[in-house]
Amino acid sequence: MSTQFDFEINALYALLTDRGEGTSTFHWRLYIHQSAQCGYIYHLINEDNSTGWRFDPQTNRNFINSEGLLVALKIDVLSPGRH
């Protein structure tokens, strides 16, 4: 499935992705779209068989074109100083 999303620059989104590999599991991320093809992803990772969580922020250039991206819910538009 390939869905085209229109992202607004400086907007904060909640993203739902399919983890793939036949697992039927999903992952939520917060994403700030900072330019035409690039943004910043904020997410927490729980490693397999672990009770601990790890914060994993990262810039990303190709995520918005990912085939696993299922939902992009815009939360708000932020001024660049609030990123």
List keywords for this structure.
single chain, 83 residues, mainly beta, 7 strands, 0% helix
- Helix run count: 0
Helix content: under 10%
Specify the structural class: mainly beta
Major sheet characteristics: 5 strands, antiparallel
User: Roughly what fraction of the amino acids lie in strands?
Assistant: over 45%
Radius of gyration, whole Å: 13 Å
Tally of domains: 1
Describe this structure in words.
The protein is mainly β and 83 residues long. It has one domain. 0% of the residues lie in helices and 46% in strands. The protein contains no helices and 7 strands. It has a 5-stranded antiparallel β-sheet with strand order 6-3-2-1-7, with no helix packed on it. A hairpin with a 6-residue loop joins strand 4 and strand 5.
In a nutshell, what does this entry contain?
The chain has 83 residues and is mostly beta strands. 0% of the residues lie in helices and 46% in strands. The protein has one domain.
SSE layout and pairing:
Layout: E1 11-18, E2 26-33, E3 39-42, E4 44-46, E5 53-55, E6 58-60, E7 69-77
Antiparallel strand pairs: 1-2, 1-7, 2-3, 3-6, 4-5
